[in-house]
Design brief:
348 residues; mainly alpha; ABC transporter involved in vitamin B12 uptake, BtuC; 15 helices; 74% helix; 0% strand; transmembrane transporter activity; ABC_BtuC-like; ABC_transptr_permease_BtuC; transmembrane helix; transport
């Protein structure tokens, strides 16, 4: 008997690699469009197509603005937005709580406290110059790890933490971090105060490749570390006992999520300050667009978070020209009404 021909997908030599999901391709295209707009629009218009196709028509000023100012800023905004949104999606899956978000439950405040402590006491530590670009992200990650671990210990002490418990613990953590930030602000000198202002509302202003590359590398590593946990996060939604029966090492998964979230949030806070509500709003939008499976939600949140951060940064530097608004104000203006709507929806 002659064998039937195999389907064409089985004949494809790269069949082990899954085909990209159309929804993710659309979100990636939207992110690229936002990035192209971000590097093009501003006080000095930069024709991106001319830069790619015919550089002879681009002035030296436009080339300098593109390579030294716009491109690092847009790339950093995209990386930070992706890291915060991915961290929010992972926290919501870890706590099984739709209101978990890095700023709301205090993770961003803990990271900012660690970063500000490094700003104030960094000179006294006399670190080698080769380590100075990494000292700020390291301190922020340490603060984020401490807060995330403490939060999970509180939330899971007597089973799954409810919405009220999580919010109350987050309020307490934010208050304690505020006390520490206020103390460091009081101890800081005039030069350090200017740096501390950077953290109060979040900004991508003054981004340079030298200072941004370490944080970008850490966020990229955290993203690669968190994305493979998608299937186990789906099983964790059934409960810790059921997930363990299905073969998930729950303790190892918790450690992976806590560490990955802390690295992503800490690195983002170290270079951009506290940018709130990205981790709350974006995962819910991703679920509304394509479902609740984390294999889709995690990469979709990263793409949407990058798009939102790039768009918010574009608005921050173009809405009140020649001044520049803090990015945190724009994301909070978007996220606060969404948070209220989400709370009312959960109550109903």
């Amino acid at each position: 008997m002659n064998e039937l021909p195999l389907p064409w997908r089985q004949l494809w030599p790269l069949r082990a690699i899954p085909l990209p999901e159309p929804r993710l391709l659309a979100l990636a295209a939207l992110m690229l469009l936002a990035a192209a707009t971000g590097v093009s629009v501003g006080a000095v218009p930069v024709p991106v197509l001319d830069l790619l196709l015919d550089r002879s028509t681009v002035t030296p000023l436009q080339a300098m603005v593109f390579s030294e100012l716009r491109l690092p800023r847009v790339v950093l905004a995209g990386m930070v937005g992706a890291g915060l949104a991915l961290a929010g999606a992972c926290l919501q899956g870890l706590f099984r709580n739709p209101l978990a978000e890095p700023q709301l439950i205090g993770v961003s405040s803990g990271a900012a406290l660690g970063a500000i402590a490094m700003i104030v006491f960094g000179e006294a530590l006399a670190l080698p110059e080769a380590l100075s670009p990494y000292s700020l992200p390291a301190a922020a990650i340490l603060g984020a790890v401490t807060v995330t671990g403490a939060l999970y210990a509180f939330a899971s002490r007597r089973g799954q933490g409810g919405v009220t418990t999580l919010l109350l613990v987050g309020i307490a953590v934010n208050a304690l971090a505020g006390v520490g930030i206020g103390l460091f602000t009081w101890l800081a000198n005039d030069g350090e105060l200017r740096s501390l202002t950077f953290w109060s509302m979040g900004s991508f202003g003054g981004t340079q490749w030298r200072t941004a590359l370490p944080a970008m590398a850490l966020i990229a590593l955290a993203t690669a570390y968190l994305l493979p946990a998608a299937r186990r996060l789906d099983l964790l939604q059934l409960g810790e006992l059921e997930a363990a029966r299905l073969g998930v090492c729950v303790v190892a998964l918790k450690r992976r999520l806590v560490f990955g979230v802390a690295v992503a949030v800490g690195a983002g806070v170290a270079v951009a300050g506290i940018i709130g509500f990205v981790g709350l709003v974006v995962p819910h939008i991703a679920r509304l667009l394509g479902g609740v499976h984390h294999r889709y939600v995690l990469p979709a949140s990263a793409l949407l978070g990058a798009t939102l951060a790039i768009t918010a940064d574009l608005g921050a530097r173009t809405l009140v020209v020649p001044a520049e608004m803090p990015v945190g104000l724009i994301t909070s203006a978007i996220g606060a009404p969404f948070f209220l709507w989400l709370v009312l929806r959960l109550r109903r």
